[in-house]
Design goal:
By secondary structure, chain A is an alpha/beta fold. Chain A has helices spanning 25-37, 55-70, 82-90, and strands spanning 2-7, 12-20, 43-53, 75-78, 98-99. In chain B, the strands form 3 sheets. In chain B, strands 6-7-8-3-9-10 form a 6-stranded mixed beta sheet, with helices on both faces. In chain B, helix 11 packs antiparallel against helix 14. The mean pLDDT of chain B is 91. The chains are: A alpha/beta, B alpha/beta.
Amino acid sequence: MEVKIENTNAETMVKMIGRLDSMNSVEVEKAVAPVMESDMKNVIIDCSEFDYISSSGLRIFLTMLKEAKKKGGKLSIRNMKAEIKSVFDITGFTPLFIFE
Amino acid sequence: MIKIEHLSKNFGDLVVLKGINIEIHNGEVISIIGPSGTGKSTFLRCINLLETPSSGVIKINGENILSPKTKVNDLRQKMGMVFQNFNLFEHLTVLENLTIGPIKLLGKKKEEAQNKGRELLQMVGLAAKENSYPEELSGGQKQRVAIARCLSMEPEIILFDEPTSSLDPTMVSEVLGVIRRLAQEGMTMVIVTHEMSFARDVSSRIIYMDDGIIYEEGTPEEIFDHPKKDKTRTFIQRIRNFQYKIENKDYDFYGMNNAITTFCEKHFFKAQQIQSILLVVEESLQLYFDKDNIIQRNEIIKSGGGINLSIDYSEKDGQIVVSFVTTNDLPSIIKGAESSDGISMAIISGMTESVEEDEIDGRLRLIMIMHLI
């Protein structure tokens, strides 16, 4: 699992690459910590190369969303594959997020 | 076509085949299944005399091929063989691999052999690779070339010795697809295989070998759905059942996932179906090793003999049963989930048709039923 973060003036792009499961979720949490500490004005999570998510990963997404909302920012999800999106659907997470 | 009587093979004191009797008729597709080391490959190699039988009779169209008068090369031309490790000529191109036999052994002209070779490469989907060398091909492509090469000798029967066992799982289906097509075209084939779904689909007869004998034989339905004998039943049950022991919280998560994936790929589950099973297993284990009580839970699980994960697959109705059995000193997993944030149970419920818990022989069992669509 790899997390790439790119900051531009307009947005913060968080690219998730690989499989996010209960074994590597702590690492991913650490990797996204700088984003959570930022103003989170416009955070986009790019999921084009994201292949698997379990509850541990969903909790990270949810924490990021809450943090963005708390700061009056915006968090959206881009290019999520249908099979990953189905995990958001069955857990009722889909309406909480903006999917691009 | 082929009649085998009392075929035996010893390697020194080791008796590998113990008096095999079988008839193979024209157009039959016979799959030989059974545990490793029970003589399946040796049997196949005896049929075309790659191994010399210790005793018995093998008659092809009435002629006893074990007679000293038999011309072994003539016999091998009638009988093609596809090996686990392809056995291609590495220094020849793909097309040359297909033409060398017909030119040298069948006396065909080069052009005729090349035309036939190209036709066969087209048939196995490798027309574009005729000038490639084997080392430039993937395992699946090499095996398809090996099948085409075998066909170039115009055999009356093809023997397949575990044709997919050295292939990456992603390449198995392309090879099985070619064999399937040959079966549809009426080619007589004997296939030693561990691919049970394939054997079931493609075969007219299944032979279950165990301990050097044909222990049971019948139609795919008879052997896979209603095996009569104990060893066959145990074997059939085992191939559809995956088991994994989780000793404690430091279990090998990725090792377990790889083993589940391999089991699922053997049964041709789709990628998304495999992901669903992996998710259900991961989320269940999240509930077992509840983060808020992990030290206590770990101690109970460890001292209670761990958690036994079992995945059972029924080919008949596509049902998958995932179950976990552990000590009943643990509290109910389903009830415990109610006091969690609910995400793990929401995933499990969304991926399965039912989630139940019961006690079996004093142990707590969590059973989840899924269906392959």
